Amino acid sequence: MEAAPRLPGMEVRPVERHVYEVQIGPAHPGSGHMRIFVEVDGDIMVRVDPDIGFVHRTMEKLAEGRDWIKNIPLFERMAILDACNITLPYVEAVEKILDIDPPPRAKYLRTLLCEINRIASHLYGMGIFGVFLGHSTLYMWAFGDREVFVQLAEDLTGARLTHSYPVFGGVRRDIPDDFPQNARKAARYMRNRLNEYAKIFLNNPNIRKRLEGVGVLDKNRATELGIVGPNVRASGIKYDVRLVEPYEAYDELDFEIPIFEEGDSLARAWVRVEEIRQSLNIIEQAVDWLERHPREGFMHDRFWKNAPQLYKDIYNGKIDYAGKYRVKLMPLFASLKVPAGKASARVEAGRGEMFYYVESDGKNVPYRVRVVSPSFRNVIAFKYVMPGHRLMDLPAIYGSFDYFPPEWDR
Amino acid sequence: MVTAAQVAYDVGWGILHYIIFYPPLYQLIIIPGLIAALVVVIFIIWFERKAAARVQMRYGPWEISPRTGGATQLIADLIRYTFQEIIVPRTVDFMSYIIAPNAAVIFSILPLVAVPMTSVSQYWPIPMDFSLLIAVALSTLSPIFVVMMSWASNNKFAVVGGVRESFIIVAYELIAVISLLAVVPLVSTFNLVDIVQVQMGGRWLGLLNPIALLDAFIAVIMSTSAFPFEIPDSESELVAGPYTEYSGLMYGLNMGAGYIRRWTLSVLITLVFLGGWAPYRPGPGVVAGYLVPSLIVVAKAVVVMAIMSFLRSVYGRYRLDQALSLAWEVLIPMAIAAFGISIAETYFGVIP
Amino acid sequence: MFAPIEMPLFVGVMAVAAAIAAYYVIKLKDMIYASISLALLGSLTAALIALAGFPIVAAYLVLVYVGAAVMFLIITISMLGLRGSEERDTFRGIIAAAAVFTLVIAIAFSSKLYNFYVLPYSVSAQQAASRLLSRYLLVLALIFVGQATTIVEAISIARRGGRS
Amino acid sequence: MIIVDQLTGVLLVLVSAIIMSIGVYGFTASRNLFRQLLSIEVLFNGVFLLVITLLSASPLVTVYYSIVVISVVSVEAIVVTAILVAFLRAYRTHSSTDLEESEV
Amino acid sequence: MSSAPEKKPNAPAPQAPTPAPKPAAQPAAQSAAKQSAVPAAPPKPTIPPEYQELQKKVAEVLKGLNPTFEPSRGYLDVVVAKEHLVEAARRLKEMGFDHVISVGAIDYIAKKQFKVMYHLTSYLNEDLSKYVVALSTYIERDSPHVPSLTGIWLSAEFHEREEYEMFGIIFDGHPDLRPLLLTPAVAALRPLRKDFVVKEESDDIETDYEAYLATKWW
Amino acid sequence: MGFAYNPYSLSANSFVIIPTVIFAVLVATMLLLRTLLRSDKRVDNVELYKYVPFESSNPPRGTGKSRLTFQYLGYLVMFLSVEPAVVLLTFLTVAPRSYSGDLLMLYLILVAVFAPTIAFGAYVAKRVHEWGWA
Amino acid sequence: MHVPAKPSPKEVPRATFLGRAVAGNLGALAVGVKYFFDPNRITLLYPHEYIKLRQGYRGYIVLIFDKCISCASCARICPARAMKMVSINVFDKKLKKYMKKKYPVINYNRCIFCGFCVDVCPTEALYHVPYHDLVYNSMADMVLTLEDFQKEPEFVTAKEGVPVTYIYDEKKGLVKVHYEEEGGEVQKAEGGQASAATEAQGEQAQGGGG
Amino acid sequence: MEAQQQEGKAYIGNLEVAAQLAKEYLVKGTVAKLVDWATAFSLWPVHLMTSCCGCEIGAAWGPRFDNERYGSLPWVSPRQTNLIIVEGTVTKKMACSVRITWEQMPYPKFAIAMGACALDGGIFYNSYNIVRPWQVIPIDLYIPGCPPRPEAVSRAIVELQRMIRNKGLASKWVVSGIRKDLKYVLPKEDLCGWRGERLELSA
Ligand code: SF4
Ligand code: SF4
Ligand code: SF4
Questions:
Q1: What chain E residue is nearest to H135 in terms of C-alpha separation?
Q2: Topology of A58-385 in CATH?
Q3: What is the pTM of this model?
């Protein structure tokens, strides 16, 4: 064998003679911000070694040096396309330590944005999935339809992706006046659209061939690997944080958790489609609730009772220049001190269970925040599911787990 | 009296007639050869992008010339490629690296000299007795150079892409050969001119044997690795397949070679199944006898190619082994069946 | 009809090209390029055959031999990843080559020098086909059976499961 | 005119002899199995030419023979390669040395 | 309009949880001292009510291993000694906690200890799904060795690799203990340890105008 | 028509001379462009990885020419064996109409012989685990 | 109103071989052809059109100098340390003398447009302008001085294009309409502050006219 | 006279000088304009996602903002592209790849830094694991925002087209082989471990 080029500073790993090592990523269309060492024997992958960390921006460390409130935008950058779901457990955990419970309207608003985010995130994942299989139309459609929901989120929060919406004790804005009918229109539009998605993508014989029976994870294997989210529901496991430990307003809403038994890539794609349907239901219900109830109770009293009149005017839409129904933050937010204690919280983010462990020692910065994002728990699947498949299955499996490297790298 | 104008006219006519319309030159370089192919490829890539954009809720190339819908986009791309640096990596085999794409282009257009563009024997580049056979045989040569390209690049993605290309050749070649030759029993000849003449009355062979047409169509898509068989340069695992290391105009050439191959085979399909210059009967003279029929063929072939390009917006790509087993379990039996249909039609005298 | 006066010129050019291609098959270090040379050699042989008046054989050669067998070699070699040095026994080679060359020339020119000539005449494909069909149907069927056996045989040999 | 044809014939015989001897040279000189296979193929190319030239007096016979020869040759290439593959694989599995280093 | 911390007295120094066994039902009295800056008084940290029942079950399962339960919210913090970790893990797995949500380590630099926590929950046992249990142990900061639980829960593999590179905790028996996220040079810093301090460029939010304009921010 | 329209000249022009000229022009263009469009030496000194093979923007490891996709050799074998037969059959179909009975018979023989063979081949070729090296 | 979520087992729609091969292909092709002939384009022709963002959009930030009471809340809450307080001499109108006062300045190299500073400012001395599509040639341009911070950044797009908004539609998702047709002006007229919108609109009118 | 002769010799013997003169002779006026026009309308960004701004890149090439209208097509391999968009944070692990990708692109090439992280670290300004992209590659345009709106990406492309056409960046490169307005950085930090030692490659 010829000597591999010797480059200083480069880890040289021995490679079995009969295999051929392909490095996929980071500057590769078939990988996101990660590298996968794939060893192929002919066309069959024999060893897959995901090498992650290309987007590791040291959030856990930075969080230990920053004020509590500043960590919300920080953690949001993990997966900006799923911003509300990603920051919500942090907010919840801190609320648990503070022992406050946000008012119901705030809960519904959070739920609403979470579901909008979930749809946007699923559509993003489907779009990327499509482009992995060479189906550019699905990519474009998913991104086009995602814009509908991004637009909704923008109407609600004032930013396309990085909403920084939930804050301790409440949320930052209330819905604008025209939001309910817009949301309903969007929901109806999306339902029709999903049928066309099924026609051009999921039921397309070409795509079905690529996905059926590929990357099969059965119940026990999925449990052993600790896969989360829609992926695990595609394997027939009834686990969804919204189901087992309802948070925010989820225990008051009527929706289903779609479960599939097959556990292959196709089922994983279908779970997401069905979840989009359910999320549309939830959005409609939440919007109904918000419309029926008066605009009050946006923020926990503890942070709001001393608010001056100006703040209330802005909230009630009497002054409108940087958005109506805006919650002004009290200056104490800037240097909030949280009592000593520790808490964990989990929510069902777009890609699965999002888990935070927060420990405070009574200072104005956290003592330790441990973040486990759904994608981080799914990485292990690549290592154990891919071997034995063909090289061309790599994007199919990779895409079906709905990758988002910044999320797993944190 | 001989005037200067007359001389000029004669000389001009002479040049036109003996140089430009000299059949090999005309067919290789002008229509349907390099120049027509260039125009068509530019149009088709533009069409491909625009059609996909239409399906995909957007505009596609537009700003460059809003009035024509961005039709000059590909010209800009071509010029940009021309004036870009050509990086030759240190690890490549230089001569093969340079030669392979050029040879691929040449062998892609070579079948075009074996096809007639008119029924006037004066304008045949070669004797037409075996033209179908020669064209089919020549069209199988150019993929070899894609493999050579990938091997010369000495890049992992390129080599994997090259091997996939060779497997795809294995899958498509038999289909293409059988389905293109499946019309032979109906006409009892390899002469493409005769084949076109038979179809003059609107009895296109594609209608007599639609399965063969479908199969040939799919084989062409496969052979040029277009969607849904875009396997050799499937970008999600192999970055650009065999072309990964090529930059500048060399890459343009590579991409062009694939499209030119598709163009060549489309012309062949047009002649064999879609009646060639069919409703039109070539008259005497260069224009009526050569230019017009060749333009008709070009027009038909462009339509064929446009349909192929449209599939990009509907399909993803197959896996390599799926494409292979699809070829062996569905398409080759289909092609053999189409062949049988032709023989049976002959036997039972469906066509007089 | 006779061949045109420039026929030997064409043949000569092709012959030189073919000889060069053959030389490169032997010379090139990289097996892939050698196989590609072989493909070129096959094409040039086909061209020579076509010039000699048998385009149908030429087409068959290109389709079956160049398109298939050479492709097979290329793929197999690239799959096996054969590279590296090879020893050569030049002396033995030259002796053998010279012997074969003399032999061929001697046989060809001694017996039939004034009898063979090349017709610039195309074999009618229809004629050939009808003759084959009418006389050698069974032979053809046997060829088919032989081919089919080859598939089974080669597949069984090449795959691992067959042996173990 | 008959001179021209004969000249052509002589040329063809010559070139086929040259190609054949190149093939034989490669076959005898090299020790690499695949090189030998390629050399045989070169040899066959010469043979095709020679057959065509020598038999061209009766064209139909030429066509039959050459078609059969070509079929047989291509099939032979397959079988030989298949045997090689099997051999190499067996060789590989039994020995720890790498293929590329061992002179096959 | 000033901020809260100025109004309130500073919070007392942080009290790291003690590893010593302590009756879980009676939280430490010291928490009363921890009045926070937040207007209302925080509750006494206890075992959350919905976990009371689970706590009994877990205590029963881990009998003989001296489990202690630390106050926490949203999960049940079970602390066992390092020697008993593997056995406790095995029993918890038998009980139905079949995968790991998170493996987290905490650096209590004042006590010269690391705490390693395995947050567990269940997929297949639907009754246990609603609980999160943290199996944790304290280890010495100087010789950070802890038995790897990858053999019991495969899902812990990448988490343990991460904690390894971030804290330098060596998980004995881990099949593939390499740095995960960082390049070797950065991982050598053990970045999540408390003695690795991230530089703030300046804690001062106020600057001189000229200095501000003169600063090359990049 | 004269010299240039002689079938041999036509063939030579179409198959050899003009393609060779185009080929030469193309190669010359490429070499010329490569010489002309070179970045400055100063730049090359800064960009050390410019001329190394592309491997997803990692420092390259190993060489590209190596042992490759082996699993689909079965399809290849099948192709090679089926092609001569089928092409032979297609060649025979130019026979005049009166022979179509023979032709049909030959076709049926071909189908009868090759249908099971192809089925067997496809079945075996699909079982990839029997083909790999490892 | 407690309706717990329920798991609902579903199945991937399976089809028979023939159905899959024929109906699947035809269905996919039909959808493709349908959109080919009846495209549903939602594209914004960007430099010629631009989205008129809603009032609440968190775009670039402008300081209203007179309202600022130098409380430094904005700088303290800024998660990216993009805001700094700088002290300058200002003429105090009440006291009629020069005083050293602190004012915020912003560094757009850092700012993540989270809007915390605007939301925390007790006197609403900061506001967002509803646009966010500027690019810079050098990083020095993005460190704003106090004077620049009081001006709205130049909105180049408004000179080149016309404003559009998107409305929701059940059939087509988002539909692009021209801003004037939406009656946007009426809304804007109410904006009490000298906001970006009004100025941008003035520019727009010029752009539209020219 | 003598000088001329010497030059004449140089032309024959020295290919580089000859090529240089040929380029200077050919590429000016209309040809230069054409080159700039073509390059401006054919900016193909390479597929390199460095961080979460990639979402908005996806949206920017998605149907609503459709940057393909400018003739800009995201392409897969750096060898065929001429634009690199650094999409947000560049970590130390990624920096090597960014650098290699940029180096493997053929000239004339352009670079855009997108997002606060790519300018000055954004919210991660004091992270120990990031580098600033302008320390790694020379940048032409900066887009602030976190993430910038897709329109801002479009704006950057429009702006870059203007720059290319007004300043003749592409044609100037063609003539002189180097872009005078760029500082070619060699990173101070040892990103992939390439400094000090020469690359050894066995073919
Ligand atoms: S918007 Fe956020 S990042 Fe920007 S200056 Fe305000 S607080 Fe800082
Ligand atoms: S928060 Fe408002 S008033 Fe206070 S310093 Fe900032 S801008 Fe001025
Ligand atoms: S600028 Fe913001 S969105 Fe972009 S990479 Fe940085 S954190 Fe992510």
A1: E218
A2: Cytochrome-c3 Hydrogenase; chain B (1.10.645)
A3: 0.87
